[in-house]
Amino acid sequence: MSKIRNKNGDALIRDLLMISIGIIFAIIFVKTGLMDLMINAVRDYYILASFIAGIFFTSIFTIAPSSIALVNIANHAPLPGVVLFGGLGAMCGDLILFFFIRDRFSEDLMRVVKKSTVRYILHSLHFGFLRWLSPVLGALIIASPIPDEFAITLLGMSKIKTAILIPLAFIMNSLGIYVLVKFSYFL
Asked: Residue 126: helix, strand or coil by DSSP?
């Protein structure tokens, strides 16, 4: 039991360290003007820049610098293009998470939560109104500035089909990027 607790503690410390590094890089990029320099370098290539920033818009480790990049790109490029191509990139990022990382988060969740609680949650997700609530909650998390790992885990546990995930991720990420850029105008 102590190995499980230690492994989860190490994973949590590692994840918090990665998040902190991402935030520090985002602050350094903005404060030193490096972000503006990078945006100016790709000004004519805003489609590619939006797509790449969108890919990184999905992960807890890269959401801070990606959000800043998307806002800066939108300041120099047409907003619909940034939202469209950023949403496409974020959709690709979510698919990467869905196919390669969802199992890791499900396993970590299983280790942390008691087995009886997991059985109850899984049973609730497959039957009744929670069967419909988890995809809706997952979609709302994708649209929010909250990183998508938890949403992908919820959607994976609800057994969502890839054919539904693709348009859902695109629409919700595009909406999230649009709201992020519009909200930044008030700051």
From this structure: helix
Report the C-alpha gap between 68 and 9 in whole angstroms: 30
Which amino acid, residue 63?
A: I
> Do 142 and 168 meet the contact criterion of CB atoms below 8 Å apart?
yes
CA distance 180 to 176: 6
The residue behind tokens 């850029």 is 181
Cα dihedral sign, 67-70-76-82: negative
Q: By CB neighbour count within 10 A (0-12 exposed, 13-18 middle, 19+ buried), where does 57 fall?
A: buried
| Total domains, the chain | 1
Which 8-state DSSP code applies to residue 144?
S
Dihedral of CA 5/8/14/16: which sign? negative
**Structural contact between residues 67 and 145, judged by C-beta atoms closer than 8 angstroms:** yes
Query: For residue 149, what are its two tokens?
Result: 């790992």
Tokens of 70: 């998307």
Q: How far apart are CA 28 and CA 22, in angstroms?
A: 10
Q: Domain range for residue 150? A: 2-184
In sign, the C-alpha dihedral spanning 79, 24, 42, 33 is positive
The residue count for the chain: 187
Tell the residue number behind the tokens 């992960």, with chain if given.
59
> CA-based angle 150:59:174, to the nearest 5?
90
Q: Which residues of the chain have pLDDT under 50?
A: 1-6
The structure's pTM equals 0.72
